[in-house]
């Protein structure tokens, strides 16, 4: 039997972090379809994120991306953090960018030229300075580094440069700060990627120390990869720092989490629950781009999709499951898991929201709020996010 009160309590405390770049215009390399009313500044991105938190109650932090969210002045970032706080938000992970400058054609911290490596590491160190100012706990690192052709560069030397650069940044981390290393199978490099998989990320994080952990972006694996196994393993080793949630049909599609494969999301969340990962130490971040759909409603829907998968995972009758597993009852064990997955948790989540003093239907609450009309009327010349530029 599952304890419904405990399930509800867990759902009320789960926090999903939304990415600043999802609020701006983004697209593919073919076309960016500009939407009206999108934010013109980092502060306006936070204003939109506050709407998502207001209707869901579980999206209190926002990930920033530097330089897309760069602000000027000595107090720029403390001021931004204050803006967030005034709206009931906090600033979340600081995402670095070592992929947009011409200098990075052959890589950033793995580049063969030490001058370029210096520039990349300096940027990462600057991101830690920003974390000090914003109160952010996490530095999220994703490297586009890699090669396109066999022989182009020395695979092992690139790993050495990576280790050296990461170590310098790791040494700069303060108390309560972490480094979250994200892996990605391919793109933009197509022959080798310097952090292509969880094993490489894990090996570097293990060497670096306890403040270095791995990020699992759900769109960064080969088709058919058993992501929940990776999650279970990383949690077991104390190395799961967080998720970049999104959905994929083909590659790094960055579609709404839970849209393409809600069953996979459930299986992932079950391993999170099973591994005790439903705590503040695992960051549940979204990493998505909303290219053709309305952005704020899509982000609200994504947060709800994470909640639904979490609710189902929490509903798994762990006692009955363990019994069936020990008895070797293959079909029985599978049935326990499927029973939870096939439960319609929407009434439960409506109850949870009602108990939190929220509208049980966040999408409808947002539509009624008038925010969408307000931003279209007030914001002219909205900003493009970095993606799809
Ligand atoms: C890139 O493919 C990665 O998913 C990154 O996590 C992310 O989208 C980017 O760094 C935005 O900050
Ligand atoms: Zn990502
Ligand atoms: Zn990605």
TrEMBL record:
Keyword DNA-binding found:
no
Xylose isomerase-like TIM barrel domain boundaries:
73-248
Protein origin, superkingdom: Bacteria
- Per UniProt, the enzyme's principal EC class comes to isomerase
Entry-linked SUPFAM superfamilies: Xylose isomerase-like
Q: Which InterPro entries match?
A: L-rhamnose_isomerase, Rhamnose_iso-rel, Xyl_isomerase-like_sf, Xyl_isomerase-like_TIM-brl
Q: Name one Pfam family in it.
A: AP_endonuc_2
Assigned EC number: 5.3.1.14
Q: Which UniProt keywords apply?
A: Isomerase, Manganese, Metal-binding
One GO MF term attached to the UniProt entry: L-rhamnose isomerase activity
Q: What is the protein's given name?
A: L-rhamnose isomerase
């Amino acid at each position: 039997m599952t304890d419904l009160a405990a399930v509800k309590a867990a759902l009320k405390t789960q926090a999903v972090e939304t990415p600043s770049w999802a609020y701006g215009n983004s697209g593919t390399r073919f076309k960016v379809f500009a939407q009206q009313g999108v934010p013109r500044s980092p502060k306006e991105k936070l204003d939109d994120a506050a709407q998502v938190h207001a209707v869901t109650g579980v999206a209190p932090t926002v990930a920033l991306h530097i330089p897309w969210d760069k602000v000027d002045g000595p107090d720029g970032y403390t001021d931004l953090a204050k803006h967030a706080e005034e709206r009931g938000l906090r600033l979340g992970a600081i995402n670095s960018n070592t992929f947009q400058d011409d200098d990075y054609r052959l890589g950033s911290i793995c580049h063969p030229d030490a001058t370029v490596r210096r520039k990349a590491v300096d940027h990462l160190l600057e991101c830690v300075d920003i974390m000090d100012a914003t109160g952010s706990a996490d530095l999220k690192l994703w490297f586009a580094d890699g090669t396109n052709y066999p022989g182009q560069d020395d695979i092992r030397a690139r790993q050495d440069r990576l280790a050296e650069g990461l170590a310098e940044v790791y040494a700069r981390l303060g108390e309560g700060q972490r480094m979250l290393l994200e892996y990605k199978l391919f793109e933009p490099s197509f022959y080798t990627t310097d952090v292509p998989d969880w094993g490489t990320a894990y090996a570097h994080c293990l060497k670096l120390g306890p403040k270095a952990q791995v990020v699992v972006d759900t769109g960064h694996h080969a088709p058919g990869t058993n992501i929940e196994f990776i999650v279970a393993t990383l949690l077991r080793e104390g190395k799961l720092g967080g998720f970049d949630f999104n959905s994929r049909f083909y590659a790094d599609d960055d579609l709404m989490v839970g849209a393409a494969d809600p069953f996979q999301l459930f299986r992932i969340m079950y391993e999170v629950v099973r591994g005790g990962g439903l705590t503040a130490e695992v960051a549940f971040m979204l990493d998505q781009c909303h290219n053709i759909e309305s952005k704020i409603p899509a982000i609200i829907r994504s947060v709800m999709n994470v909640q639904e998968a979490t609710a189902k995972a929490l509903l798994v009758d762990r006692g009955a499951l363990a019994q069936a597993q020990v008895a070797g009852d293959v079909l029985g064990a599978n049935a326990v898991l499927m029973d939870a997955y096939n439960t319609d948790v929407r009434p439960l989540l409506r109850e949870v929201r009602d108990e939190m003093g929220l509208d049980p239907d966040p999408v409808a609450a947002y539509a009624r709020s008038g925010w969408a009309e307000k931003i279209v009327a007030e914001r002219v010349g909205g900003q493009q996010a970095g993606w799809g530029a």
